[in-house]
Amino acid sequence: MPIFEYRCSECNSKFELLTTNKNSDKVTCPECNSLKTKKLFSAFSTSASAPISASSCTSGNCNIDSSPAGGCASGMCGLN
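Above: the chain's sequence. Below: its structure in token form.
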């Protein structure tokens, strides 16, 4: 199931919701319970195609994952 981002037209609250495509247009605002919500365009991410090099790490605790997809093994690369 995809995560969609929404903005409420009533209270201007921005929120995310894990929902099916079938129900993605019938969303109630969690702040004010309004049905006047609009789905926002949002970016998505994919895994890196090559391992992250040690030179790209910004903290002292950088654990490089040696898997083919690359990335930080423990999320300690400081690339957030």
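The radius of gyration is 18 Å.
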